[in-house]
Structures are given as structure tokens and as C-alpha cells.
């Protein structure tokens, strides 16, 4: 999907943003930042965690999230470098499969008390453990319910829902599990629920975004992940390239780094005053000589990384999807860092 003609966000009309990525790419950080960006200008977003890691709570520096929707942040336009406007809100939910199954049993089979009795007997934990497909049905179902939910006034409860989804290698099956369930259950509440969930997931109101780094393995997994999503008929969103380091050498330096530049570097160090102004030329040269090889080695390593990243960008460009680059935050990701990344996503049109 291309940027909208009026310069608005690329995903106008999308309500359910599914964020996946290879482990270590920072998908939870990106999901949290996207939720903040989407909440700007007076909107309400819900950030959902499905893997039970409590990564959202850790990022926002709050206590472990219960199985209930809880406000975790406010976002003023000024925090994202936007002109004045209403402050938005971010809510969070850590979905617990056991609680979700109890809710499901009560909603569709009116087994409120019986469900609690089953929980006491350990049947609920047993069911969600031995049937991972059931677990995924419950997780996706809860996310889709939140995306569709309306309040008493008929308006949507949330302007957007962001799901911190399983890793890229598992996300297609995770999202497509209700298709398999609908194929097994040909009628009844389970079939109807599975069909309703897949209508949301396959609709234009859903987009699956993949997070990657400019490294070979994450990029290859992203390429494979996009192929799997497309083959399954699931709506592919954008590519978020995370932790991008700025280039330290210009194009000419990158091309020339393998040449013999000892004399040039030595002279540059002298001109910078590292050799001392009052020494003889021989003393100055002896002072800067030990610095030459380490500096040249670092330049070669940096040049190799720049060229590798260029190749990875070319591979990602072949996917023909919107791409958003986020900077590497040297001090790690704290709450301030999340707002900074949210501002970047907003500026680049992802929200």
C-alpha cells in the first residue's frame, strides 16, 4: 500500500495491526511504539500481548498486566512533534489463554459456573496446553473481538488495536488457525466464531507488519514470512527496519577503504593535533603510527557493514512493501525511547 494521496498515514482504515518479527529484532518495542503513534491526536489504542512474556509491562516500567484492559500511557501531540491537539490514550492487555477460554465458554455456551468448576479441576489448563491450536484460536479471537467491539454509543471502543504477535516463523499459522478450525467444525458456535475471526483477519482493516534488522538471517526470514502470508491470503502490511545505525563514511570513503591510505590517515591525525604541535616530524609520526592499523581496520569493518546493509535493503525492496527505518537507540529503550520511536513512525507515515 502506498502513501495516501493527501500525505496521511499509509494504513488509514486499518484497525488491527499485527506486529511480528524474528526473535531479537525488537518486535515488542516496535509494537509498543506503533501503539503510541496510533494514539496521537486524541485516539485510543489497545496494545495486546499474546505470548505471556509480560514484555509490555517491562517496556513501560509497570507491574505485570492482568487479564484486563488497563490504561498504561497518554500521548500528547507535542511528545511526537505534532501541532496541538487532543491527548490520546494507550491501553494494554496480556491475554491469558485460560481466562480467554473461560470467557469463550461463558459467551457461547453459557457455562460461566461450569467453566469455573472445570478450572478448579485443571481441565482448562489441560485443554490450552495439549491443544496449541485452541490456544491460538482464543488469542486471535480476543484480539479480533477488541478490534470489532463497540460502545453503547455505537462507536468503536478502540481506534486501533496493535497485537505483539508470535515470531515470523510462526505468525502465518497463528493467524490462519481459525481457517483450520472452521474446516473441522462445519457448523455451530465454534464454526461461526472461527469464520467471524477470519473475516476480520483477512479484511482490509487488518495489516501484518514484519520487523527486521539489516542482517542476513532476519531479512531472509522476513522475505520468507511475507511469502507465507501472501500464500495464505493474509494481508501483508509494512516492513519495519529496526535498530538502524547511521553510516560514518560517505560513498567515496566506502569505495576507497580497501586502498592504501596509511599516509593520508597519518596526515589527517597530525592535522587534527593528535601528534602534538611542538614535536619533530619523526616524533609526531611515531606518536600516530600505533593508531593507524586499528583505525583502518575499523573503517574496513564499517565499510563491509554498509555494503552488507545495502544488499539487505535491496532484498527488502524486492518485496514492494512500505518500509520504515527506526534508529538504534544507543542507551537502550526506555519510556522516552518508545516515544522517540513512535515519533519516527508517525513522521514516516506508519501511523
Automatic annotation (TrEMBL):
Source species: Peterkaempfera bronchialis
Any Pfam family the entry gives: ArsA_ATPase
Designated name of the protein: ATPase
Domain ArsA/GET3 Anion-transporting ATPase-like residues, every copy: 16-198
GO molecular function: ATP binding; ATP hydrolysis activity
